[in-house]
Amino acid sequence: MVLVVGDSLSAEYGLPRGSGWVALLEKRIAAEQLRARVVNASISGDTTSGGRSRLPGLLTLHKPAVVVIELGGNDALRGLPLSMTQDNLQAMTRAANAAGAKPLLLGMAVPPNYGRQYGEAFTRLFATVAQAEKAALVPFFLAGVADGPDAEAMFQADRIHPKAEAHPRMLANVWPALKPLLR
Predict the structure, then answer these.
(1) Consecutive sets of 10 residues in the chain, 183 residues long: mean pLDDT of each?
(2) CATH assignment at residue 38
(3) Which residue from 81, 106, 103 is spatially nearest to 92, judged by alpha carbons?
(4) What is the DSSP letter of 100?
(5) Number of H helices and number of E strands within the chain?
(6) CA distances in angstroms from 134 to 5, 17, 83, 92, 102, listed in the order given
């Protein structure tokens, strides 16, 4: 079982139900005849603190084989300390490992207006946690969406949430790191 703990990017914010990357993941798993079900425990607006507090109960309830952690973007948008975000992600990956699940971190980036130093440190913390906790990593979950040639057209009017058309690309970013964990 794959447990996805994320924020609005995984909770289909502003999208028709069934068009987000997690729903597409379920279809991909079925099409490839892999034996895994998906539980989407994502909540719009969630932070790493929220995910950290919810994860123990989710691990007990669902007993996943894989935990996909797609959190951190809201921490940055709220200007929360990077050390706190890193500590929370580290605690979540440790909890997944301790429960016998394989953790997969989905790395994020912040817009350039946050400043180069903050942006680089934020991006780096995902790799730091993945390496320290031996977790799988997607370096940038929104690669080809937020940094693509037609990036503006890939987002809803708020310029934060990807449109449905972007979600197949988001799944394409996750799949190569996730598929080996399903074996």
Answers:
(1) 98 96 97 95 98 98 98 94 97 98 96 87 97 97 93 93 97 98 91
(2) 3.40.50.1110
(3) 103
(4) T
(5) 6, 5
(6) 18, 33, 19, 12, 9
131: its two tokens: 């390496």
pTM value? 0.97
User: At which residue do the structure tokens 């999208």 appear?
Assistant: 15
Residues catalogued as catalytic: 8, 158, 161
Q: How many domains does the chain have?
A: 1
What CA–CA distance (Å, rounded) separates 149 from 131?
A: 31
Q: Where are the alpha helices (DSSP H) in the chain?
A: 21-31, 48-62, 73-77, 82-98, 116-133, 167-178
Strand 102-106 vs strand 136-138: parallel, antiparallel, or unpaired? Answer: parallel
Range of the domain at 36: 2-182
